[in-house]
Amino acid sequence: MAVSPSTYPRRLLPLFLGLFQGALLLFFALFITYDEPSAQAEDTSLVVNQAYSTFPFFQDIQVMLVVGLGLLLTFLPRYGFSALTHNFLLLNISMQWALVLQGLLHHFHHGQIHLDLHKLLISEFAAVTVLISVGAILGRASPCQLLVMATCEIPLYLASEWVIVTCLGVLDVGGTITIHVFSCYFGLGVSKALFRATQQPLHPKETPTTSSDLMSLVGTLILWVFWPSFVAVLCQPGDAQHRAILNTLLAMTASAITTVVASSLLERDGKLSPGHLQNGSLAGGVAIGVVADMAVPPVAALALGSLSAVVCVLGFRFLTPLLARKLTLHDQCGIHNLHGLPGILGGAASVVAVLVAPKDASGSLPSQLSPAGGNASEVAEGQWGVRGVGGQALCQAAGLAVAIGASLLAGLLTGSALRLPCLARPPERLCFDDSLYFKIHEQAESPGADSSAEEGALALQEQV
What we know:
Layout: H1 8-31, E1 32-34, H2 41-72, H3 80-106, E2 108-109, E3 112-115, H4 117-133, H5 143-167, H6 176-195, H7 210-232, H8 239-266, H9 274-288, H10 298-326, H11 335-356, H12 383-417, H13 441-445, H14 453-463
Parallel strand pairs: 1-3
Antiparallel strand pairs: 2-3
């Protein structure tokens, strides 16, 4: 019996995932192991303390990514199953892929990679870039396209992060530049290349409903609660981590309040936009990450949180429609407003924070600005004293420029690859619909006379 063309995407997805997981099983069997148990009481105590201090943060981040971010993406009323499942699937794939690449690049010694919780955490940070980037093309890309995008983005992110943190020595403990800015412009580059100059009209299934907006807002609340763990987990325990938690909380409280003010003022009737609340309330957490562990005054954290919320709301209100008209740039989830603009603002704030930081007698940067606990790379301490304040400020600006330029170029190249017909991009009329990828019982059991022709075709596709 001949295979219907409509089943090819369904055959390709399990084939891709099966081969991927099989290859990783073989790699883990050959090269990845745990550290040998230590007989030294001091070493055992150190491992226990590290596990107990890190794992609660790790669990917070898991809740953020699996539950919070997943629910945030459910604002599309007929794409909730797909948004949650694809987010969950991409997190698992990207984390395993990043763990392998990180191990080969940084931790491959004597033919073995020794696995620990810190390496797993760093791999999860790399996976975050994928989860953010796919927001630009959510609903208009097939699962196969998303998997190929994740496969390409992880090594490109690791290369960019190595240049920014290791080579340039950029201070960015919360990933504002290395994660948020990179992933935003990578996703926009993919979107531009994938859809090219085609103007994407408003899809009839694209408009949120009350229930979908409510679910998305619940996701925002979960992300808001756990965000300080995301920023502070890689800080040195003690004063730096304490500062990071406090600064993040202050910035996010300011962004939540300012979002309400800005959204109300921009609407003629003074009502609030759910989209503004879902995104603007989180903008402070994006912007503060780069300076969270620095010795900035509390008022600076509040000011940065407020400014980030303003630029986020203004971006949704004015910049996104402008980019869609002038550049035919499609940004489904508004990642430019939540991650790109606040990320650039945070990067600029880090330049100012370095320039105005108190210096010691030799004119070097203080210990509060050391790169301890940087995103994923180990950097030699004392590096900043050689550069001085002006040199470090220049490096912060250069790191921001590298993140934007490298991610845009990499995204454009990746988006061009995603245009391959074998990756089964859905036709426009079938976008934003779970029925293309999930067995929806109501439709599968009885398409019915009242169902539209499109829904009937989708139900028949599921029965092939």
